[in-house]
Amino acid sequence: MIEPTSESELIGRAQSGDAEAFAALARSYERRLLLLALHYCRDRHDAEDLSQEVWLKAFRAIKSFRGESSFYTWLRQITINAFLNERRALGGARVVELDAWEASRRDCGGAAHEEEEQIALPLARTPRGVEESLEQQFLVARVLDALGDLTPQQRLIFLLKHQEGMTYEEISAAVGCSAGTTKKALFRAVLKLRERLGVAPRAADYKPLPVRKSC
After folding, report:
1. At residue 122, does pLDDT exceed 60?
2. Within 13 Å of residue 68, how many CA atoms lie on the same side as its CB?
3. 51: enclosing H helix or E strand
4. What is the CATH class of 112-212?
5. pTM for the whole thing?
6. Fold entry, domain 7-89
7. Cβ distance 55 to 82 under 8 Å?
8. Would you say 98 and 184 are in contact if contact means Cβ atoms under 8 Å apart?
């Protein structure tokens, strides 16, 4: 049998019940999803358990994939759902902190401040040389280590924005909250990281992300 080389062929075979084709698909994305789970869980065993759960769910649901998004986007949504389900299983409210912020907006009569906040992240920098590249790698490592100071919701949104490169709207749809709520959670996450790392925003070094403050 001639092995297919395209992802679409592998997907078609997997949807027909070919476990080897699904395994080939998994090999293409398992490291990326495991890395996302590891940064979210902060524990290798928990990350591996969640990853296995994701692949099991993906295998069972592969026939439902219709190609309306990329295969990785479909897998990532299953992963996000697994993260959220884990939080519910641990007894935590799904979006406690974010819902509290939305409630504060209502308490203020729904009026939103127009003040613009600039979120600046060291992860957004582009190194210019070897020395700066090493400095950047060290700083990124410190940021990832500091993720443990964030709430699970803040950590998830931070990773989806700055590791996965998703837009506010995409994150909001993925986790089930408003774009404004997503921006607020990211703003709080970055403030916590700055405090932990002792990093002050500098316009020349960081790429700004505009966020509107509310109330």
Report:
1. no
2. 4
3. helix 44-61
4. mainly alpha
5. 0.70
6. Rna Polymerase Sigma Factor; Chain: A (1.10.1740)
7. no
8. yes
